[in-house]
Design a protein that fits this description.
alpha/beta, 6-stranded mixed β-sheet, globular, 4-stranded mixed β-sheet, 10 helices, Lyase 2-enoyl-coa Hydratase, Chain  A, domain 2, 260 residues
Length: 260
């Protein structure tokens, strides 16, 4: 598939999806959102892909929804637009492989939610995070922010971030758990690559079931979650990857997982 607003690069089992609108600080218009969903689906369906990385071109990660391209809002259009952007967040969460947000700069609104929906967030010290929906007269309940943010930083901090619309710098984001790592800008590529290599070396089926259990468990009771863990672990114990991992453990070497 040909993309006009993003870059889709594949190498050594890793897909990097770059929002490529630097002249608009990688703001998300409708075409870009549709391309991102198509790219995520393509990466998710490719068994050769182990990890997906999302980043932005130039100095920004993503400046959120592109208000310049926003259509006039009738009730019908408003329903469609809000639904489309929620579908985009679900598309990130639905990838059954690790998704790493490489946050190279500004992450505002939908850009911040893109990072929140990813599994792991590595941020440059130049990055900042803002969910400033209230500052333009709309609700902070947008693009999954009220669901995703409190699960990372707690309800108190989520209330402050969403109700004030004030930005959070990278170091503070790391301190409160909004990102996993904040690193000097010149180390961002290396830090992301290190994480990608660690994830790529893990068993694909094991990661798939781990990711599903982590997210589904947020909204399940303990017994229901144990039922899923029972299914997932039995499935993994019957795979070739488990046999390889067990052999490698006793032979004191790194396992070579193959996703089966």
């Amino acid at each position: 598939m040909t993309f006009g607003n993003i870059l889709y690069e594949q190498a050594e089992g890793v897909v990097t999806i770059t929002i490529n609108r630097p002249q608009r600080r990688n703001a998300l218009n409708i075409d870009t959102v549709n391309e991102m969903m198509a790219a995520l689906a393509q990466a998710g369906a490719d068994d050769s892909i182990r990890v997906v990385v999302i980043t932005g071109a130039g100095d920004a990660f993503c400046a959120g929804a592109d208000l310049k391209d926003a259509p006039e809002m009738s009730p019908t259009v408003a329903h469609e637009i809000v639904g489309l952007y929620l579908d985009y967040v679900l598309a990130i969460r639905s990838v059954e492989k690790p998704v790493v947000a490489k946050v190279n700069g500004l992450a505002v609104g939908g850009g911040c939610c893109t990072a929140l929906a990813s599994d792991i967030r590595i941020a440059s010290e130049r990055a900042s995070f803002s969910l400033a929906f209230v500052n333009i007269g709309i609700s902070g309940a947008d693009m999954g922010a009220t669901y995703l943010l409190p699960r990372l930083v707690g309800y108190g901090r989520a209330c402050e971030i969403l109700m004030t619309g004030e930005p959070v710098d990278a170091r503070e984001a790391e301190r409160i758990g909004l990102v996993n790592r904040a690193v000097p800008h010149e180390e961002l590529d290396a830090a992301t690559q290190t994480m990608v290599e660690r994830l790529s070396s893990r068993p694909p089926l094991g990661l798939k079931f781990t990711k599903k259990a982590l997210y589904s468990g947020l909204d399940k009771d303990l017994k229901t979650e144990f039922d899923y863990e029972h299914f997932a672990q039995v499935t993994c114990l019957l795979t070739e990857d488990y046999q390889e991992g067990r052999r490698a453990f006793f032979e004191k070497r790194q396992p070579a997982f193959r996703g089966r």
